[in-house]
Amino acid sequence: MSSDVSPTTKNPQPQTLVIVIGLLGLIGLGIGLRYLYVERMILHVDEFASLLSIKMILEKGAPILPTGIFHGKGVTYNYLGAGIAALFGFDIETIRYLTLGLSVLTIPLVYLVTVQLFENRWAGLVAATAFTVLPTIVLWGSRARMYTLATLMVFVVILVAWRGLISPKSRRVWTILLPVAVLVMLLSHLVTIVIVPALFLAYVGVDWLRVRPNLRQLNSWLEPVGLGVALVVASGLGYGLGREAGEVRQWHEEASLMANVIRALFDLRLARNFYNFFLSPENMFLTILALIGAAALGLKARRANFTKADWGALFIYIQLVATFLLLYGLVPSSIRDERHNFILLLPYLILAMAYG
Known about the structure:
Blueprint: H1 12-40, H2 45-60, H3 75-88, H4 92-118, H5 121-133, H6 135-140, H7 147-166, H8 171-188, H9 195-211, H10 219-242, H11 245-254, H12 257-266, H13 269-278, H14 284-303, H15 308-329, H16 340-344, H17 346-355
Helix pairs in contact: 1-4, 1-5, 2-3, 4-5, 4-7, 5-17, 7-8, 7-9, 8-10, 9-15, 13-15, 14-15, 14-17, 15-17
């Protein structure tokens, strides 16, 4: 998809009109598909937790459950839901429409992120189409739950990080914004903490490969170390504010690094979950295109002939692979859930597919 350098075409007006019409059509389709679910779906068990948290915020000003436990998971979404409920009334349809709005808002965001990465409007339209129609995205884009906001924030974090890499004049501004965006992402769902080390690895790796700094000089280490410290601080704040007591206790009980790595190797966890996610009927076509893109990227790497779009692709592939390995190699099985793939892996797969 990334071979067409559309932003520099000689006569962009007809193409721009087609893109705008296409995006508007996708937004309309996205609203229609999600509306069907909003009106017809029965209450999902996860929605009850969000609704209860929102109700407690309306009554007490904080998501403190009747048991006295602070429900930190999805705190950003829950406060946003409380604000909407205060304006339009507290009921499940109102909160579901909030999710619908966030999901539809993500459609043009996906387009924007893809164009920024690969400099190709058609690739952006393909990625936005995938986000519009994929059943899992439509389903969770219609429920009163924080997953859609967390996914939106993953795309925001990708955009902010990439702008920091490619914008020399405003690099400092984007680098300062990145930990802030990461904190909001973590407060949308704490499971996104898995993305943070993958993001840092991709950011520093791509930056060093592009710029080729002299690592013997102290100045070459100041920015990555500073960014790493800022991301650790943001992760600490997100962990402290966005956690659930029971969930955190499980993390501490099962977070033996060596034990989880050994389990991942001997129970074929990585292979099984690669098959379950990447080769599922819903994602198989996306995976095939992403693998084609990875092969093309590998060939270009051998020739040392990278364009800006190729660097963007490398930035995404590093995060996709690293996040998958962290999620299924280190995270305890009692904490993981297949629904987390929607937040942690699907955004990267959609972007990798668009490059392919």
